[in-house]
Prior knowledge:
Layout: H1 11-22, H2 26-58, H3 63-112, H4 115-121, H5 123-130, H6 132-165, H7 167-173, H8 177-214, H9 216-221, H10 225-278, H11 283-305, H12 307-324, H13 328-335, E1 347-355, E2 361-370, E3 375-379, H14 386-394, E4 401-406, E5 409-410, H15 416-420, E6 423-427, E7 435-436, H16 437-442, H17 450-459, E8 475-476, H18 485-499, E9 503-507, H19 518-529, E10 533-537, H20 541-545, E11 549-554, E12 557-562, H21 564-570, H22 573-586
Helix pairs in contact: 1-12, 2-3, 2-6, 2-11, 3-6, 3-12, 5-6, 5-8, 6-7, 6-11, 6-12, 7-10, 8-10, 8-12, 10-11, 17-18, 18-19, 21-22
Amino acid sequence: MNHGILPIATPRETRRAMWRLLAAKPWRLALTVVTLLAASCCGLAGPAILGIMVNIAATGGEVPDLLWLALGLLAAGGAGALLGVAGQNMLARICEEALADLREEVFAAAVRKPLAELEKAGIGDVVARVSGDVEAVSEAISGVLPAFTGAAFTIAVTLLGLGVIDWRFAVAVLVAAPLQVFTLRWFLKRTAPIYRTVRITEADRTEQIIETVHGTPSVLALGLQDRHSDLVAAASRETIGHSLRGVNYLTRSYNRLNLAELIGLSAVLAMGFLLHAEGAVTIGAATAAALYFYRLFDPIGTVLGQFDELQKAAAGLGRMVGLTQDRAAEHGAALAGRPPSGPAAGIVLDSVTFAYPGQRPALKSVSLRVEPGESVAIVGTSGAGKTTLAKVIMGLEKIQDGCVLVGGIDATTAPAHELRGRIAMVSQEVHVFSGTLAEDLRLAKPNATAGELLQALRAVGAAWVEALDDGLETSVGAGGHQPTPEQAQQLALARLMLKDPPIAVLDEATAEAGTGTATMLDRAAEAALAGRTSVVIAHRLSQAASADTVVVMDQGRIVESGSHAELLAGGGRYARLWDAWNSSLSRP
């Protein structure tokens, strides 16, 4: 279903990104490593003490010596357990904080992505990355990664302990290694692609569910409930099918790991028998070596078995990191060649060409200059390229050729926060955010006083707010007061005034107004744009009549430009549009 998924980071990019986040707190990371190593070293004491106790019992030693050793065994076990828990908690905390930072980066990257790229990928892919993928990584960090890391340290330290007893014990342990390594490589090779596919199919399922929920009125009206239920079920079955393939490989790998444990323990016991027969080691040392290897069963099983969960987490992590990969610099390098220079509050488009993927150019060599403080109205028939032009000016679409300067900076390469500080847009489809009216408005200016909020509302004619029982503290959005489309536009224009950018774009922002409210919203728009450089995608030609300059577009090109009076006098396309529009108003 999803044919335009967002970027997925390579394993190398993923590791580099996570190391950057983890290394942000080097001293805490170092202390965590030391704590986990100390816990593993305490674990070495158990088999060693038991081996000494076996030697004492075999030679008829003193009972008090056995008691002291038993107390030492308890102390070592208790210290190892405490240090292990502490180290795993410290590691989980560091990783959770790193994940929180990454989650914020992912969300910020998502809202910076070009609108066309997000629309092509589908909302399900974005939602899955900031929800399902985060959950998979979080579960691995809180449960799997600490256990995996502790087990890895235990294996390394235990192998060292076996070598200290006699290097031949370490060699005996390695008899099982080829089968374990083969099993791990076999498992990883087959499951890595499966888990990446699972994450993608889960995003497709999320997309299908969201589309069904959003389209509930149409689904019910057309009687398509069964059809959409089948689509969701099919997406779920696809995800489950891939997951079951992974489970099958996991089960088969565990069988091979159990065989490797049998081979390894047999090799250690046989080596202990031979070395003791030669007098090279005591029976206690041979016992300790066998206990050391037996002690490795759980950590080796943890390390090899938890690769399953780590694979799932790595797939989700790669999708999260991939969303943060910004190719804007590469895109900008391809368009480099002329320095960004232009009026600090103006707009300059020079020979701009843009095409949506797989389609003919929506803009063809468009050149336009908007001086600081000037108001420009863009008019034309549907499909002329007006909205595309607005998106290009806003930096929401990346052009294929030409140059776009907004407020003196290159809109194709400038950081999003820098561009947004110079320009803002109000579109035809506005959103009222859940919360109080004051909170909705303060999204544009967090430190705005109640007086400033009311002043902005009055300027756009939103006197209805003062008639509400709770005024600015009235809850709006989901579960609260539902403003009419015209009132929602007034709130959007009030947010524009509070943000107070030097440049503003209105993309048919008052198109939803009925005949009774059109004049009111046009006045609200004029108030919001007063003193700013503005580009208005005009839905009604009355908006163009009050602009300093009118630009007429057709099939992605600018075909006329001038003042309202000049274009009427010229008798061209704009004059014909004006006559047709006035004729439609005069009809009963």
